[in-house]
Amino acid sequence: MLSVDAHFRASLGRRRSFESTRDTLDDIDFRWLNTHVFVRHLHRGLAAVHRHVRQIEQGLSEIALALFPPGFERVASDEHYAAAASHYSQPGQQRAGLFPFEVRALDAYFAPPPARLFVPGAGAGRELLDLVERGYSVDAIEPVPILAEAARRALAEQGRAHEGASVTCESLESWMERGAGGYDGILTGWGMWTHVVQRDARLAALRAFRRACPRGPVLLSFWSLERVVDDPSERSGAAAHATSQHATPLQAFTHGLLRQSLLAWPPVERGTVWRAGIFAHCVSAAELHEEATLGGYKVLHYERDVARFPNAVLAPA
Question: What gap in Å lies between CA 225 and CA 166, rounded to an integer?
Fold first, then answer.
């Protein structure tokens, strides 16, 4: 075995060797690499591969949007979140607290505790746990059983399972049929509104929110259409109907011929995208205001800033 002194000398030698290597690298002028033919060809090759990968992704998105029947988006969404439940159920995720945009909306537009709130799409309970800790009475629903159970366990561990807080494993459609109400405000789970893909379903949900919470605000969070479609390379499915003059040949085939002519299914709505197994609806500012009006609301606040998460606060008109 080496003595302590030998260990010290060996460690010192490694440190000096590292410092010598670092000094040598600092002395090298790497600017010549900027014009080196190999580096330029490598960059062009990587860029070409990336463009091809994006094209493949867009093609898969068009096929998925065209070939899956109306209503399947709910099945796909539930399966995705069930598979990712272990991530969302981690204590660091569950107890991360409200996002800054949620805190701002809560402070500016919602009644203070002990107001009664409704949280649809509660996931594993991130919003629920924070709201209960702040003193709110909260009813939450979550359609994915494993996530709903994780939220219940977290409530029990927090000692709040029977203190004005509940989690029901239930879809939004089932909740609407129940006709629950008496709420002072509605705070949808993060991104929940983007999973309500069909316009009729969004309008039905807004009207149900209006009945359940006649005088209180609604906080919606979603993917923004402008965020996705502003980039021409992201115009997969979301940009236009297949019947539009702007439709690509692939859109004309998958949406026009396959979906509408052969399968006789309704066209995919503008703003609908498919990303890695999730069907999502990207909300535009104009659409948000129009649907809010039809649902009996007015838009008090709208943020499309990606850094703050796209969201809107609605109030009864």
Answer: 33
Spatial CA neighbour of 68 closest among 276, 280, 259: 259
The pLDDT tens digits of the residues spanning 147-206 come to 999 999 998 887 765 578 899 999 999 999 998 899 999 999 999 999 999 999 999 999
Question: Which residues are within 8 A (CB) of 286 and not within 5 positions of it... i.e. 6 or more apart?
Answer: none
Domains present along the chain, CATH in parentheses: 4-51 (no CATH), 74-221+284-316 (3.40.50.150)
**Residues whose CB is less than 8 angstroms from the CB of residue 231 and which lie 6 or more positions away in sequence, other chains included:** none
Q: 39: number of CA atoms within 13 Å, CB side?
A: 7
- What DSSP designation does 192 have? G
Instruction: Name the pTM for this structure.
Output: 0.78
d(CA 208, CA 201): 10
In sequence order, the 6+-apart residues with CB closer than 8 A to the CB of 262 are none
The span from the first CA to the last CA of the chain, in angstroms, equals 81
Contact 225, 284 (CB under 8 A): yes
Please give the DSSP secondary-structure letter assigned to residue 191.
T
